[in-house]
Design goal:
Blueprint lengths: L5 H14 L11 H16 L1 H6 L6 E5 L3 E3 L7 H14 L3 E4 L8 E13 L5 E12 L5 E10 L1
Parallel strand pairs: 1-3, 1-4, 2-4
Antiparallel strand pairs: 4-5, 5-6
Helix pairs in contact: 2-4
Length: about 150
């Protein structure tokens, strides 16, 4: 049997304590917006109008417009929302993404963020955001709309 000096045990305990993961940091407040962007992008990709354009395995030509922040929170990082929508759509492998303003596309996605304040069932104030993606043709014809809502 090997005897380990107490100092070595104390050092090992200290190393183990330091190696423990820190308590989880509170989630980034912008996380709800990336969640909504993921959800609504998935809905767009699964929508009947999008699937009709992708019929036969053809990649749909998409333009994603700027995110219109019509919420009460001017601090929302709309670039993060835009990037998440773009990344989710490109990752699907079923689209060809073109720059804003390109008129040789099948669909234009126009993202809009809105908000409202109300009381939850317990009388606490909630701030709810809705991210809506509207699909239109290049000529401006409404094709479909999908949305996601989160409250905090």
């Amino acid at each position: 049997m090997r005897i380990v000096p107490a100092a070595a045990l104390a050092g090992a305990s200290l190393l183990m304590a330091l190696a423990r993961p820190a308590a989880a940091a509170p989630p980034d407040p912008s996380y709800i917006f990336t969640q909504m962007a993921d959800e609504v992008s998935g809905k767009v990709l699964a929508s009947a109008p999008f699937q009709a354009k992708a019929d036969g395995g053809r990649k749909v030509r998409i333009v994603v417009g700027d995110v219109s922040n019509d919420s009460d929170d001017e601090g929302v990082r709309v670039d993060d929302i835009y990037n998440e929508i773009r990344n989710q759509i490109v990752a699907s492998g079923s689209v060809r993404l073109f720059d804003r303003g390109d008129l040789d596309a099948d669909l234009i996605i126009s993202p809009q963020l809105t908000s409202e304040r109300h009381l939850d069932p317990h009388g606490r104030r909630e701030y709810c955001f809705t991210l809506q993606l509207t699909l239109t043709s290049v000529s401006g014809e409404f094709v479909a709309a999908e949305s996601a809502t989160r409250c905090r």
